[in-house]
Amino acid sequence: MLWACILLPQLALDGVLRRHATPDEPLVLVDGPVQRRVLRAVNAAAKAQGLRAGLPLATAQAICARFATVEHDPLETTRWHDFLAAWAYRYGAQVSRQMPASLLIEVEASFRLFGPWPRMEALLREDLVALGFRHRIALAPNPWAARALAGVHDGLAITHDAPLKQALGQLPVERAGLPPEAADSLRRMGLRRLAQVYALPRAALGRRVGADTLDQLDRLTGTLATPLTCYQPPDHFESRIEFNYEVGATGQLLFPLRRMTGDLAAYLAGRDGGVQRFVLRLEHERGAATEVPVGLLAPERDGGMLFELARGRLDVVQLAAPVRALQLIARELPPFVPAGRDLFDVRPQQAVPWEQLRERLRARLGDEAVHGLSVHADHRPERAWRDHGQSAPAPPQPRPGWLLPQPIPLRERELRILAGPERVESGWWDGDVRRDYYVVETAAGQRAWAYCPVGEREGFMLHGWFA
Amino acid sequence: MSNVVALDHLFDARRLWRGQPQARPPSRQPTGFPRLDATLPSGGWPEAALSEVLLPLDGIGELTLLWPTLARLTQADGRVALIAPPYLPFPAAWANAGVRLDRLQVVRAEARDVPWATEQCLRSAACAAVLCWPQHADDRTLRRLQLAAETGQCLGIAMRPASAAAHASPAALRLVMETRPARLRVLKCRGGNPPAQPLPWPLPTGTSEAPPDSPATAVPDRA
């Protein structure tokens, strides 16, 4: 087995930056009690101003006049960790997020699908850059070694035990994931590199540094196998963005919405699923949240399409109050079946498949706006059609091409009867109908389908046009 | 004394051309009425363009005019979208006319959304034909629809009131249906002069694979 470790050195900061409209301006994460705020992480622009992690906030404000501060939220960081685990799940069946700020993926089993490691590494990096997370990647035959090597190297790939020993030997003692006090005492003994530690007699070393340290040293070389808890993807998707200002127009929600639908698409691709219904919750300062349901006729997972549909629904929403937070909740995640497409299909530019077009029309015109037609076996014309389902065989009698939704009185004197009567008599069980239908021609030359009560020849009701 | 110029040079320089029309390839969008096809310079509906049918009243044969085309397109597995039809299309009659109902989609839209929905459908290339009933379409709207039909390589047909005949339109083909007497007049057709005489309505249907009296063969060879 080969394990890839993706180390996320700035997980908390990246999680905040990726939803900021201006990530190039100085921004810091602050932490600690109110009296003594400390910078937890700083972005590149803030670093250029001279700020660094660990600085008290008061000192930072003395160094740099203008920078944005965001409260560090450990829960939020955990959420991003989960999100990335869900993303990594598409690259390997065994994904672990057990170690803080890193992901471990068993990749050897996936080489046949994604190609050899260099190609797969490129894919991983491409995705992470698109998602907006800084990362370091290392490959090793066991997860513990991969984690330790990722702490020092970026892009190192070791597939065999001999080079692994050599690489581990070069590792500084304090970066090997040993218990801190053990690493400290080893360093004071004058042992700088792991090679020096491995050269010591094992029993004597064990007495000095304890069994935990020996176990970790064995895990690194792969002689001690310790199972990792593997990640299980959840059955629903939730994402929430809180604004530190009030959003008064739906247009300003589009940027966070694009991120959210992109995340949803990444999550769905990892699950190999689609989404058929999701809800956008617009939370206000007070009062109930506005819920905007987005429904599709068939499961989809294309990020651009989900964004466009959600945008169509959001455009028509009238905001009653400013929005403080936006939440996307998707609970029904049915399997996704991609539409078959012809390999040599020559299609004009801007072409979209029918399913996508239908969703676009429904998003703007309403859920019921697009429907099909089918014949329903019933004598009464108003019940002889359905807007869905399989068609029954059409009756052979002449029927008009246009049917009026409601019959209206036909107020014309000079009617010429062309055909009829055809008696329609049915439905004593649900609304009795007894009518004589005629094909009549009006003075203007229109051919109408009209009925009158049984046995009479006046009081025509217009019910359709033979067009 | 003027120079004697070989005719071939003039032909090559496109300064002179023969009046006798070349035999045209049959249109890929025949209307299903051989006599109408023979009248139109494209031999049928103009492909990938917007056509207009202008109607003084409802129920005077507008569907009879369209059904052969829709039947041909749906039976070839093409999808047909009806945008905001004025009444409910009665499925039995459409099925009896040969239209495959499972390829038919009805889009209900309010008057202001009709041009938008039509443009989306035309542009998408997901439909073989798009029929729309815009209530008030100005010149700019129609131009957009015409461009969308070109982009999406789609047959677009707009059904409009006969009062629109007085205004110019960017549509490639404009047909007017008249009653008393029932006639079909070609108001405008791209690529040729509209015929002076209106066609009597109803027209006989038939396959127009080889029009019996297309102008290419009907014009006597005077050479």
From TrEMBL, chain A:
UmuC domain residues are 24-148
| Taxonomy of the source species | Bacteria, Pseudomonadati, Pseudomonadota, Gammaproteobacteria, Lysobacterales
Identify the keywords attached in UniProt to this record, alphabetized. DNA damage
Q: What is this protein called?
A: DNA polymerase Y family protein
InterPro entries listed in its UniProt record: DNA/RNA_pol_sf, SulA_CellDiv_inhibitor, UmuC
Q: Which PANTHER family match?
A: BLR3025 PROTEIN, BLR3025 PROTEIN-RELATED
Q: Which SUPFAM superfamilies match?
A: DNA/RNA polymerases
Q: Native species of this protein?
A: Frateuria flava
Q: Is Lipid biosynthesis set as a keyword in this record?
A: no
Ranges annotated as biased composition (Basic and acidic residues): 376-389
User: Known CDD domains for this protein?
Assistant: PolY_like
Locate the region Disordered.
376-402
TrEMBL record, chain B:
Residue ranges for the region (Disordered) are 19-38, 189-223
Please give the Gene3D superfamilies that the UniProt record associates with this protein: P-loop containing nucleotide triphosphate hydrolases
Q: Keyword set for this entry?
A: DNA damage
Which N-terminal residues, if any, form the signal peptide?
none
Q: Which NCBIfam families match?
A: ImuA_translesion
User: PANTHER family from the entry?
Assistant: BLR3025 PROTEIN-RELATED, TRANSLESION DNA SYNTHESIS-ASSOCIATED PROTEIN IMUA
Q: What is this protein called?
A: Translesion DNA synthesis-associated protein ImuA
The major lineage groups are: Bacteria, Pseudomonadati, Pseudomonadota, Gammaproteobacteria, Lysobacterales
